[in-house]
Amino acid sequence: MLNDTSETAADAPAALRTVTVMLWISAGATVLYWLTFFTSGAVQSSSEGGYIAFERAFPAGDAWLAFAAVACALMLARRDPRALLWGLIAGSSFVYLGLLDTLYNLENGKYASIDGAMAVEVIINLFSLSFGPFLIIYVWRHRRWLLKP
Q: What is the domain partition of the chain in residue ranges?
């Protein structure tokens, strides 16, 4: 899991494996969300034209987030110093997309009625707005470990 075989798992920051797994799950869930959105539409919380147009603006940003999450996960697992950069990028992408989606939902009354698809949106919003800041703090707090030769 670490670059230097003389390093032990005890040297790794707490929750490193959990953070890495969460990054992989996030990337996978993002891909699954968009596959579902564009195939069955089961995750669409509305059929309104404005909502569909708004949601169709997200795949590029979400692809960037998924790429950053995978890059961070791979580099964390290898104790590659670039994990710091990719963790900050992924974390800020989570926050940005979470805030954008949450503000749209608030301004358009989407949280007023929670069905299955809207419950998924709420979970995504809460996850993005909690995991994003957590990831930023996590990689920053462990930057010395990541950057240590």
A: 26-147
